[in-house]
Amino acid sequence: VVVGDHDGVVMCFGMKKGEAVTVFKTLPGQKIARLELGGVLNTPQEKIFIAAGSEIRGFTKRGKQFLSFETNLTESIKAMHISGSDLFLSASYIYNHYCDCKDQHYYLSGDKINDVICLPVERVLRDIPVLACQDRVLRVLQGSDVMYEIEVPGPPTVLALHNGNGGDSGEDLLYGTSDGKLGLIQITTSKPIHKWEIRNEKKRGGILCIDSFDIVGDGVKDLLVGRDDGMVEVYSFDNANEPVLRFDQTLSESVTSIQGGCVGKDGYDEIVVSTYSGWVTGLTTEPIHKESGPGEELKINQEMQNKISSLRSELEHLQYKVLQEREKYQQSSQSSKAKSAVPSFSVNDKFTLNKDDASYSLILEVQTAIDNVLIQSDVPIDLLDVDKNSAVVSFSSCDSESNDNFLLATYRCQANTTRLELKIRSIEGQYGTLQAYVTPRIQPKTCQVRQYLIKPLSLHQRTHFIDHDRPMNTLTLTGQFSFAELHSWVVFCLPEVPEKPPAGECVTFYFQNTFLDTQLESTYRKGEGVFKSDNISTISILKDVLSKEATKRKINLNISYEINEVSVKHTLKLIHPKLEYQLLLAKKVQLIDALKELQVHEGNTNFLIPEYRCILEEADHLQEEYKKQPAHLERLYGMITDLFIDKFKFKGTNVKTKVPLLLEILDSYDQNALIAFFDAA
C-alpha cells in the first residue's frame, strides 16, 4: 500500500502477521495533492507518481526516485491522471497534457477544474481527456479544444473509469458530485449517453473518491465510494447493470481515498481507505467469528492475546513519545530565545447550498479533536438542527442595534470529535459575513477564524437552462464600467460564479432560487448588464446592491426597469403550495392530542376516517416538522411582504402602512383574497 500525505512524505508498507512493515519512506516536502500508479500500457502499473506544488515526481516500488519534472505551472497541481507516457494535469483553471514530459495541449477553463481523467487509449485508440468543472459541467476535450460539454446534476468532484477500464465500450465514465450524487455516462465521439444516476436520497455527504473492485467475489466488479461525512459504500450491479447498495460503514471523518485489494491476509480481500486526519483503515471480508474445534480455539485465543499485547506496547510507545514531545515543547516555549510557539493546524471546511431544503451546510474538520466552535454573524440567519451533530450548542444574546451582531452561538464538542456539521438558513437581501472560530483540544490554546460570505441573493444556485415562457421583469444597467467590474459585482451578489471574468466579450448565467423555484437570467458585457427574473424581489435586491456598489466606486449608473404585473401573481402561486402545507401542518398538529384521547378511549383507530388515522400514524414526524414551523412561516410571510413592498416601490409608492392589513389576510389565508389585496392596493 502506498500513501502520500500533507507533509510531503510518500510511504509504502505491507502487512505481515497483522503488523504494518514499511518498504520505504521518503523525506518530508511540499504537500502531496495527488498520488497515481502508472507504467507501460498493458503491463502491471507499478510505478508511483506524485504531484506536489507544481512538480511531478516518480518512484519505483522499492522507493528509488526516477523522475522529477517541474511543470512551471503558476498554480499548484490539483488533479492528475497517468496513462503510459501521457500525463494529464490540472491546476485550478488550467489543464495541461504532456507526453514524455513535453508539452502537448493546453486549455483554460471558465470555472475551477476539480478532477481530470482520460478514456483508456488502448481501447478508444486516441486521447479523450475529460475535465470535471465546478460549474456542474464535464468538458470533453480533443487536443486543446472542447469537443462537447455534459451537464451533470451537481458540481462534480471526482471522475473514474467504470470497472477501472471504461466498461464494455471503454467509454464509460463514473462521476461523483459534492452534493452526494453518483452517475455513469458513456462518452461517445459525438454525444454523451447518460446510463444511470443515483440521487442522494439519504442526504449523505459529498463524494470524494471512487474505485472499482470485486469485493463481493461474484466475478463482477463492485463500486466502492468514499464520502466526506465518513461514509464508505459498496454498490453491486444487478442484471440490468443498475447499481444496488450492498454494504455501508461509517467512519468518524471524511474518506480521502479508497481502494480494493488483498492486503492483510491471503485469500481475503479488503477495502483500504485513508481519512482526513491520516488514518489508513482496512475493512476486510475475513469472517471475524471463526468456526473451530477445541484445538483451534486455543490457537485463536493465542492469536488474539498476541494482537492485544502488540497493540498495548504500541500504545505505550506512543504515550511515551507524546510525553517526550510535550516536555521538549514546554522547554522551547519557556526559553528566553523562544519565538511565539503557536501550534499550527489545518481546517478542512466546506460551505455549500443544499438544493433540497434551501439551507447552507457548513462542515468543519480538523486533524485533532475539536474543543469548541464559536459562530458569529453580522446578518440575521437561523441555525437548524443536524441529526449527526452531537455537540452542545449555547446561544448568547446579541446587541444587533449597536454592533451589527445578529448571532453568537457556541458549539462545545464531545471528546474525539474531529468533524462538525452545521446547517444555516439565510434571508435573501440581507448580506454580510458569517465567521467560525475553531478551537481544537491542543495546548497552548489556539484558534483559527474562517469567514464565509452570505451574498445578497444567497439562495440562488447556478442552473443550465431556464423556462423562457415565464412572465419576466427586466433590470437594465448602462454606464462607464468595464466587463471585469460588472463581473465582480455579479460575483458579490450571487453564489457559484467563477471569480475570474469568463473569456469573451459577453456572458450569460442562469440561476434558480432553491426555496421558491423562481429564476434569474443575467447577461452582461462592457458598459451594459441585463437581469431578468420572474420574481420582483430578486430584481429589487439586485437594483439596490448594484447601485450601492457603483456608488462606492464613483461610477455613474443608468438604471431602467420593465415590470411585468403578471409576474407578481405568478410568484404568489409558487409560494401558495408551501404556505398551504405549513398552515395545514399546524391544523394537523392541533388535532393530534384529541385524536390520541379518542384512540385511548375507543381502544383502536378503526372508526376514524383514513385522513385522521394517517395523522396519528405520522404524529411524531408531524410534531418534529411543526417545531421548525415558526421560522418557516415567518420566512414565507417575509417573502410575501417583500413582494408587496417591492411591487409598489417600482411604481414609486410606499405601502409600508398597509403591511399590518396584509398580515391579517395571511393569518386567515386564502389565495384569491391575497391576490385581490395585491391588485386592489
What would you say this structure looks like, in words?
This protein has 681 residues and is an alpha+beta fold. It folds into five domains: 201 residues, Methylamine Dehydrogenase, Chain H (7 Propeller), CATH 2.130.10.10; 84 residues; 107 residues, Sandwich (Immunoglobulin-like); 104 residues, Double Stranded RNA Binding Domain (2-Layer Sandwich), CATH 3.30.160; 115 residues, no CATH class. Helix content is 25%, strand content 39%. β1 and β2 form a beta hairpin. It is globular. It comes from Balaenoptera physalus. This is Bardet-Biedl syndrome 7 protein homolog. One of its GO terms (biological process) is intracellular protein localization. One of its GO terms (cellular component) is BBSome.
The CATH superfamily label of the largest domain reads YVTN repeat-like/Quinoprotein amine dehydrogenase
Helical residue percent band: 25-40%
Mean pLDDT: 89
Distance between the termini: 72 Å
What would CATH call the class of the largest domain?
Mainly Beta
> Structural class, judged by helices and strands?
alpha+beta
Number of strands: 41
Tell me the strand percentage band. Answer: 35-45%
| Rg estimate, integer Å | 29 Å
- Tally of structural domains: 5
Please name the CATH architecture of the largest domain: 7 Propeller
Largest sheet: 6 strands, antiparallel
- How many helices does DSSP assign? 11
Which sequence of strands runs across the widest sheet?
A: 36-38-39-40-37-41
Global morphology: globular
Coiled coil: 301-328
Protein name: Bardet-Biedl syndrome 7 protein homolog
Domain BBS7 platform: 460-562
Domain BBS7 GAE: 343-452
